Every structure is written in structure tokens, then in C-alpha cells.
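Whiteboard transcription, Tuesday session. T.W. wrote the C-alpha cells on the left side:
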């Protein structure tokens, strides 16, 4: 079973140290997502169906809204991962060009060979996180920004705006799909009815799915699950939100708490109760 060693959440997004062997279903994040091996065995993540190695010398770079998943063989040696989920808006407040971290082609390659400096920055952050004394906010945000800036300078296309604006890199806007996205966000507690959404957009079901994937890069089902998981993580981390897990499950459209628990474990790696117990809020 996956164990959360450390978790932190704030305006920067969130980060986690996970001793992980539980599979993760295909999912996505609105944030810029980076995965490092912290310790243990070499392993692999899947990004857009491509199997990519996670070693001491590599990092997995997942663009915002890009589907990815994790699968481990039974009895496979365990691995501890450092997972970053960084808000592009937060990066932009520190360095404006990094607002492009929200772009679907910000990282051209999903797996890279990291430099010794980037490895050291990641290891320093891991060491600080494992300290029994919680990191101060200024130190945490400084370490995150320095690491993300180093990754961006080395492996992203942020310095070449023209490259990111090429037609093949853009997801074409469609007002009908945008209305569907707004409807989904406003009704997360209701079951996804793709047929009704397609009809309201005056599209056939097949046309709706094609246009939805063209605009978002994913299916409606994955999109809804992304919003539900992010909403759950946000509410689980709020100190003033003492909503029971059963009520939170109901608010997000789950028929029972057990289903909600399995959903969060498949999306995040840990149960909702463990997430609430471990997360440090900044």
C-alpha cells in the first residue's frame, strides 16, 4: 500500500513524498507536474501511453491536463517519489514568462536526463521535507521555484514563445465545448451525462467527444475526474473544512464513501483520511 511520507499544499500547488506501490489510474492535473525518484528501485510512469523510466538520472515532465498513470508489477521493489504539482499562476508571480507552464506543450519531452545541479536541488528539497521540523514557507517556496526554474531553463520551450504558439501546439477554442466545461465545473456533484452535454452543444455524441478531446486533450470522463480530485485535495487540506468524508463524497457525486476512497487512492495514491492527516498547509 502507498504511504504518504510528506505532503504540502499552498498557493504554489502541492507536493508529495510517496512510498508508492499502488497503481494510479489514467488521470491529469491542471498544474505542471514533475516526478523524481527519491529513493528505492528504478521504476516507470506512463505519459500519454508511453512507458518512461524513473531513475536517479531522469525526471518525468507532465504538462498541464496531460493524461498519465502508474502501474507496478506485484512484488516489484518499492520506490519513493517526489511529486510536484506546481500552479503556473504562482510561477508567473515570480517570473512572468513561466506563465506558459500552463501550455500543453510547455515541456516538449516527457522524460529527460537531468543535470547534476537539478539532481542536487531535488535532493536538497527531499532532505528538507524529511526533516522532523516542517519547512518554513519562504524556504519551501524558494526551493520549489529554484527547481522549477532550472527545469524550465533546461527542458521547456518557455524562452521561445513562437514555438509554443505554433498551430500544432494550440488547442483550438470552441465556444460549445467551453460552455460544456463550465457546466461540468458547476455540477461536479452530478453524474456526467455526455449525451446531454452533446445535445446542449448541438453536437452528436461522436462529434462532441472528438471536439472535447481536440480542445482539452482528454475525454470528458478524465476531465471530470481531474476536477473532482483537485476539489477533494483542496477541501481535505482546508483547516476550517471539517466536513466528514461521507459528506465530501456526496458533494462530489459519489454514491458512498468507499467509492470515494477508492477514487482518491487511484488518483492521488493515498486515501482521503491519510491525505487529511499528513498534509501540511502553507
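and on the right, the sequence the group agreed on:
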Amino acid at each position: 500500500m502507498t504511504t504518504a511520507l510528506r505532503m504540502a499544499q499552498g498557493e504554489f500547488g502541492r507536493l508529495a513524498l510517496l512510498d508508492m506501490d499502488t497503481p494510479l489510474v489514467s488521470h491529469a492535473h491542471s498544474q505542471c507536474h514533475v516526478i523524481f525518484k527519491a529513493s528505492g528501485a528504478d521504476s516507470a510512469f506512463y505519459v500519454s501511453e508511453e512507458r518512461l523510466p524513473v531513475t536517479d538520472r531522469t525526471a518525468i515532465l507532465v504538462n498541464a491536463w496531460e493524461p498519465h498513470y502508474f502501474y507496478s508489477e506485484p512484488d516489484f521493489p518499492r520506490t519513493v517519489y517526489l511529486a510536484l504539482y506546481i500552479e503556473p499562476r504562482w510561477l508567473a508571480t515570480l517570473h512572468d514568462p513561466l506563465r506558459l507552464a500552463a501550455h500543453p506543450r510547455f515541456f516538449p519531452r516527457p522524460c529527460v536526463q537531468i543535470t547534476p545541479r537539478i539532481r542536487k536541488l531535488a535532493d536538497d528539497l527531499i532532505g528538507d521535507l524529511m526533516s522532523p521540523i516542517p519547512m518554513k514557507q519562504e524556504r519551501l517556496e524558494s526551493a520549489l521555484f529554484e527547481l522549477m526554474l532550472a527545469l524550465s531553463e533546461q527542458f521547456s520551450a518557455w524562452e521561445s514563445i513562437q514555438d509554443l504558439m505554433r498551430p500544432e501546439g494550440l488547442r483550438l477554442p470552441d465556444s460549445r465545448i467551453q460552455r460544456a466545461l463550465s457546466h461540468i465545473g458547476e455540477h461536479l456533484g452530478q453524474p456526467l451525462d455526455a449525451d446531454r452535454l452533446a445535445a446542449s452543444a448541438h453536437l452528436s455524441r461522436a462529434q462532441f467527444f472528438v471536439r472535447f478531446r481536440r480542445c482539452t486533450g482528454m475525454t470528458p470522463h478524465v476531465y471530470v475526474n481531474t476536477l473532482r480530485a483537485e476539489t477533494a485535495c483542496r477541501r481535505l487540506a482546508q483547516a476550517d473544512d471539517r466536513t466528514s468524508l461521507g459528506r465530501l463524497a456526496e458533494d462530489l457525486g459519489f454514491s458512498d464513501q468507499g467509492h470515494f476512497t477508492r477514487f482518491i487512492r487511484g488518483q492521488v495514491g493515498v486515501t482521503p483520511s491519510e491525505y487529511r492527516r499528513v498534509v501540511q498547509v502553507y
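Someone added at the bottom: The chain has a mean pLDDT of 90.
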